[in-house]
Specification:
Rossmann fold; alpha/beta; dTDP-glucose 4,6-dehydratase activity; EC 4.2.1.46; 355 residues
Length: 355
């Protein structure tokens, strides 16, 4: 039985990945390590309560002793690192937290994982360390040249404290591979959307506000372009990289769904109005606000390498994925209410406090 140690596994993408692993593979164990900051929500994992293949540990990846105990007890074969502070606006207000968690946390995890690599004469040990990154480390693409994309050899050029911290973490992972021969991969994804996303991010924020007839704040002119990737497609890509990715390689994971932010907002208005049968959800809710500092104009990924090497491709068109996402939020009002009110932190956090 293979053991996956997944950090940040109570967050948006991490929890979807944990569910994907347990739904797809029978003979595995998932050790889920999450600090349960504001973005960690164990209600995301309610469907696997009682599944003995899932072990949850409340711990911070910066805590070397806690990480050493987890590795010693469960002897993971694979480490997949999702744990990170990830909201750009928060990084602008408090960059130190992002440097501490995203950089030093990753280095701590690398040190512990490398110490466990190949222990006991190779009878067990970490076979692969996968760092889950972001396309934001590449910086910004021009709006007037849609044929230019981020590729794995695109120079790193981050523009926000968040993307700078993720770029630094990626470089440490690469350095551990180059220096020590440690088996690593780095994935860099475009903007994810789907179930369980914290409502400070664009799509769930707009869905939640639209359903409540609240203002829909749009930065600047609304023409900033993002490449949208349905979270389940992303999880499948990471699973493939863990299993079959060539050691040392970087894999870009993109959705081929580039859309301006204002298009996304108007599409959400249209679909929310239909799904909720609510004529009051209209473009009148849109409110343009002062642009974000250092706001990148366009992201776009060419996922040619992962398609050629591993056979992965984005299966979910945006027009399909956005409807699935809206209907998920409509069908899970209790989850939304618990997150927006903050009560999601109470019951489950108390249950796992100190474990």
């Amino acid at each position: 039985m293979k053991t996956y140690l997944v950090t940040g596994g109570a967050g948006f993408i991490g929890s979807n990945f944990v569910l994907h692993l347990l739904n797809k593979h029978d003979d595995i164990r998932v050790v889920n390590v999450d600090a349960l900051t504001y973005a960690g929500n164990l209600e995301n994992l309610k469907s696997i309560e009682g599944d003995e293949r899932h072990v949850f540990i409340q711990a911070d990846i910066r805590d070397k002793s806690a990480m050493e105990r987890a590795f010693a007890e469960y002897q993971p074969d694979f480490v997949v690192n999702f744990a990170a502070e990830s909201h750009v606006d928060r990084s602008i207000r408090n960059p130190e937290v992002f440097a501490d968690t995203n950089v030093m946390g990753t280095v701590t995890l690398l040190n512990v994982a490398r110490a466990a690599w190949g222990q006991a004469d190779g009878r067990y040990g970490v076979h692969k360390f996968v760092q889950v990154g972001t396309d934001e480390v590449y910086g910004s693409l021009p709006l007037d040249d849609p044929e230019v994309f981020f590729r794995e050899d695109t120079p790193i050029n981050p523009h926000s404290p968040y993307s700078a911290s993720k770029a630094a973490a990626d470089l440490f992972v690469k350095a551990y591979g180059d220096t020590y021969g440690f088996p690593v991969n780095i994935t860099r994804c475009s903007n994810n959307y789907g179930p369980f996303q914290f409502p400070e991010k664009l799509i769930p924020l707009m869905i939640n506000n639209a359903l409540q007839h609240k203002s829909l704040p749009v930065y600047g002119d609304g023409l900033n372009v993002r490449d949208w990737l349905y979270v389940e497609d992303h999880c499948k890509a990471i699973d493939m990289v863990v299993s079959n990715g060539t050691v040392g390689e970087v894999y870009n994971v993109g959705g081929h769904n580039e859309r301006p932010n204002i298009f996304i907002v108007k599409k959400i208005i249209e679909e929310c109005s239909k799904a909720a049968d609510d004529a009051e959800i209209t473009d009148q809710l849109i409110a343009y606000v002062e642009d974000r500092k250092g706001h990148d104009r366009r992201y776009g990924i060419a996922p040619d390498k992962i398609k050629a090497d591993l056979g992965w491709y984005p299966e979910t068109a945006f027009e399909v994925g956005i409807v699935k996402t809206i209907r998920w939020y409509l069908n899970n009002p209790e989850w939304v209410e618990h997150v927006t009110s903050g009560t999601y932190q109470d019951y489950y956090r108390a249950m796992y406090e100190g474990k």
